[in-house]
Amino acid sequence: MKTLKVGVIGCGSIAQHRHLPEYQANKNVEIVAVCDPNEARVNEIAAKYEAKAYTNYEELLASGEVDVVSVCTPNYLHAPISIAALEAGVHVLCEKPMATSQEEADAMIEAAKKSGKKLMIAHNQRFVPSHQKARQLIESGEIGKLYSFRTAFGHPGPEGWSVDGKDSWFFRKEQAFIGAMGDLGVHKTDLLRYLLGEDITEVGAFVETSAKDFADVDDNAVCVLKTESGVVGTLAASWAYTAKEDNSTIIYGEKAILRLEDHPTYSLIVQYATGEVVNYELGKIQSNDEGGQSSSQVVDHFVESILTDKEPLITGEEGMKSLAVILAALKSSDTKQITRV
């Protein structure tokens, strides 16, 4: 089998904790290049992975050395770098949110179509065992008609995790464009679309900055969402859950309630209307805490989709639909009106 040559563009925390170690662990790839404008950082990472260091992504792409890149940069660079890579005939795994506007997302999808190369967005929540099991239960009719849901993704904020702490691009509007909603909320819109098997059509949202006085992006958001079949529920995304991460989802159906990642031991609890309760121990969700799942499976899935020439689970189109919900939430918060996606 062909060994894919990989370059990682952006050497911050997500590259260091996820992409680089997961590529290194995959026997079908070889990390040949890393890129970051911070020279000291990129040289250190290059030495660690025995890869070539670049401070300019255009030079990396022009080298013709790579088959695949991961784009792990600040949000505002996702689209331009992904498009440049696709136009250079390189497969792209892009971090979320895929872009900062609908136009950018469209341009990325178009570039992938034209080049015939794969574009995947790194929404890792679809690979969590409890989420996959819940989707099966919903699809099989086990839960009956769906009535409602609530999902949350919150932690104390990226300053504890980002390589640059409080000086991180995460908190700067011109680089991030969007805060907790782009960092965490978009993961949950993607998860809900995956679990429920339908799109979200309307959003009402409050998107605030209340916890991080040094940030000029949102750090606390609560949204009410409605799906195409009329299922309603809430989504919270926050950098203000100061003591403990919350990454839970609850689905309320006619025959049962599903509790996902809502218990320290059981990653999925099914509470049937008959009174029966089934607890599943399916392994921990990936998290930045010690003891979280070691691999997000995103890289392995992407590599496999290239080698077998199959569509990845989260295509550009899928990433765009999940981003569109976030863009609608921002509009709703600004206009104080329910917004159509």
UniProtKB/TrEMBL annotation:
Residues 131-258 form the GFO/IDH/MocA-like oxidoreductase domain. Residues 4-123 form the Gfo/Idh/MocA-like oxidoreductase N-terminal domain. SUPFAM superfamilies: Glyceraldehyde-3-phosphate dehydrogenase-like, C-terminal domain (SSF55347), NAD(P)-binding Rossmann-fold domains (SSF51735). InterPro entries: Gfo/Idh/MocA-like_OxRdtase_N, Gfo/Idh/MocA_Oxidoreductases, GFO_IDH_MocA-like_dom, Glc-Fru_OxRdtase_bac, NAD(P)-bd_dom_sf. Pfam families: GFO_IDH_MocA, GFO_IDH_MocA_C3. PANTHER family: BILIVERDIN REDUCTASE A. This is Dehydrogenase. It comes from Priestia iocasae. The lineage of its organism: Bacteria, Bacillati, Bacillota, Bacilli, Bacillales.
